Amino acid sequence: MNYQYWHRKVEIMPRPELEVFQLERLQALVDYALRTSFYAPKLRAAGIKGSDDIKSLDDLKRIPFTTKHDLREGFPYGFLSIPKEEVIRLHASSGTTGAPTTIYFNRDDITRWTGYVARSIYGTGCNHTDVFQNMISYGLFTGGMGFHAGGEEIGMLVIPSGSGNTTRQVRLMQDFGTTVVHATPSFLLHVESIMRAEGVSRDSIKLKRAFAGAEPYSEDTRRRIEELLQIDVYNSYGLSEMNGPGVAFECQCKNGLHLWEDGYIAEIINPDTLEPVPDGETGELVMTILCRETTPILRYRTRDLTGFYTEPCPCGRTHRRLRRITGRSDDMLIVNGVNIFPSQIEEVIMAMKDVGNNYLIEIEKDGVMDKLTVKTEIGPDIFMDDSRPLNALKERIRKTIQASITINPRVELHESGSLPVSEGKAKRVYDKRPR
Ligand code: ADP
Ligand code: ZN
């Protein structure tokens, strides 16, 4: 394959050189952090009074972890390292798990961030001839403006279509010959359902690629989107605390997400002991941002569960690859004492024939026991009024889920397109148990 690199020199930089670069950035960043009201006392208490006290990358470990709770405590300006007058933009996290947190940018921060997004997009094989429709919410959420700027940087025609309004999205694709889209995986599946329901032929659109992210999804969901829409889907990972998109992205090999190590330092820890896990094992991703001066965030506990692949990527990039993020440590559900992750359910049902594009999970109390219900849409070739195949399908889903998570779920089948679709991140779990 002919791999293309946007920032060739840094993307294939030998690791020893990359680490020297990281150390220089970390030293600079510590000086910025010392100017924030949150980090100043914490760094001093750890014996770090200036960049001279950071002599190697190992010194990072002297700095305590930062949590989401800390970011909320520091709201609104506890993490700001420069005078407010020099800030040119703010963004906020989408607040999936509580109150949102805010991050600030100066002009250089925005330029650097745009560079990482451009590098990510270009690495999937796009160029200036592409037409890029950004089907994600603009505004405080970083996925809108972040991807928009990255797309413009490499010279693509960018259509800021925003999220939702599926029929119009399809129309835009037809009118302007969209070749690339960015969306959540759940929205991509929804677009396919609507195209099918409205009789839009695949030939009437020119789509080749999609960047899918902002929420966890399984390899089977990727395959499903790729087969249904006949496109290549690339996994995109980011979080607003670390700028947003452009943190880790798949290259043309689609075998894990290159984490841009000239902009970020990643650690994987055991969330219980807080010790690093052995190389290659799964744990919680902890991140330090090296590419933003205005809101330094050091050793941030993302709660996202993943690990590094240990072998190098055939594309030649030296930046390590993260495995698909299966969810957050706080997504875990305890159902009748058994720990399960919603991603385990998704993995089995999205791989099944005759299951449609949307599903949700409901948990209720039934006396003293928890009752788990999985509601899924049915595929287009199954009919709601034909009870024999429906019952067989239901039974097949029930058994497959039980084999995977040991819990025996109740299964409900719904017509294609009838389960709720969110405009942003999909809401899949409805835990109705009293707290
Ligand atoms: P919030 O934390 O409120 O959801 P963000 O918009 O910053 O706000 O979302 C970042 C989070 O979204 C990540 O920490 C991760 O949990 C999830 N996420 C983003 N991209 C992916 C992806 N490709 N795979 C799995 N999860 C993802
Ligand atoms: Zn690669």
Please render the helix and strand layout as text.
Layout: H1 8-11, H2 15-33, H3 39-45, H4 68-73, E1 89-92, E2 102-105, H5 107-122, E3 131-134, H6 142-153, E4 157-159, H7 166-176, E5 180-183, H8 185-197, E6 209-213, H9 219-229, E7 232-239, E8 244-250, E9 257-259, E10 264-269, E11 283-289, E12 300-306, E13 321-322, E14 333-335, E15 338-340, H10 342-350, E16 355-366, E17 369-378, H11 387-405, E18 410-414, E19 429-431
Parallel strand pairs: 3-4, 3-5, 5-6, 6-7, 16-19, 17-18
Antiparallel strand pairs: 1-2, 7-8, 8-9, 9-13, 10-11, 11-12, 14-15, 16-17
Helix pairs in contact: 5-6, 7-8, 8-9, 9-10, 10-11
The structure holds adenosine-5'-diphosphate and zinc ion.
Adenosine-5'-diphosphate binds at residues 93-96, 141, 213-216, 235-240, 302, 304, 325, 328.
Q: Could you provide a short overview of the structure?
A:
The chain is of the alpha/beta class. It has helices at 8-11, 15-33, 39-45, 68-73, 107-122, 142-153, 166-176, 185-197, 219-229, 342-350, 387-405, and strands at 89-92, 102-105, 131-134, 157-159, 180-183, 209-213, 232-239, 244-250, 257-259, 264-269, 283-289, 300-306, 321-322, 333-335, 338-340, 355-366, 369-378, 410-414, 429-431. The strands form five sheets. An eight-stranded mixed β-sheet has the order 4-3-5-6-7-8-9-13, sandwiched between helices.
